[in-house]
Amino acid sequence: MSKKEAYVYVVCGSDTHINTLHTSLRFLKRYSSRDIIVVTDLARNKAAINHPRLIDVRTDSSFSDAQAAIYLKTSLPEYLNMQDYVYCYLDTDILAIDKDADTVFEQPFDPIGFCPDNITFDYFSPYAVHCSCADKAAQNKKMLGEAISMYEANYNAWKAFCNNPQGEALQEYLAVLKKNKWAHYGILLNYFFQKHNPFSSNIRLKNWRQNKQNKAWYDLKGNKVLYPIENFETYIGQATGFEYHAAEKYWSLPGQPWDVTKPRCTHLHEAIAQTFGLRITPDNWQHPNGGFFVFDERSRDFFGKWHAHSLAIFNKPDWKTRDQSTLALTLWEMGLDKISYLPVTYNYIIDYFCGNDAYVPDKGFSKDGFKSCHHPKFVHVFHHFGDTTWALWNTLLSFS
Q: Is the pTM of this model over 0.85?
């Protein structure tokens, strides 16, 4: 006999969380006719949950709302009919947007099914433990932005100054020489000899002369008409100490391959090793996202370990209240670090702060300028959920 299928949410606390749940429920009910269950601690909620199937579980009053939600999420088998159902858990900031959403229940999993996160474990680390790496990345981003703004101001001033008939004519002439070096070999050879003549302080070129010391160009009357501006990468590098990676278009610290503006570290790896005696490798291991997963009776042991590990870090000062850290730990502890993930279309992550997410109806969603595209069944909205000033959020509303 085939099992029944149901979706499960967990929510505790503020009006914001309840309102987010109601939005997610509205989307899900449009695209699915399966049962939907909400597990909550009603005593904590500031607003009523407008849904008929609620499971009310009292949680320890010493827990914060976030800890209470993790407590309930990682102990779901204790409150659900595990014998007769297969379940799909959704965070409240996930929206169903496709009529084939229920095909998630057809996806194979053993003993539990997750989708990959949108970042790797080293980039998740600063958000899981208390370290200064996120602040340092923010400082680097600010420093880089200030340096770029200063260069732009210098460039605009340079462009405004050089916007004169003589300056424009000289720039055009220099461009011609640069483009057709062999055709102007004699002129360039003469320029070279003048440049290296120790008895001359100027270089004569047609109707202009260049001062060897400041590299500026003057007309024959001595009026400055053009001066050199420092190369963008050189200027920013000297101002910040960062190195530019032209192919990927980002800045890094000297000798490092990582974007200085994106928080990244291995402090979570070290915390797991110190607290639980297990080392996660490589640093950039692709961990799962804990906001969407399918499970059934086979998942009980996994939940048991996940729950115990989550409770163990609640009062540890170095750890932030996150269940995704202990999720990764549990996978490794159970030898599931190479588990096959569900297709990303079941938990397609859209991050407001990434800025690369885009949508075109006939192509779908993309993060890379439509070099690759997806037609998700569910989208997971990171940050600015419900922000009607965000174009992509308004696009998502059209699916409701």
A: yes
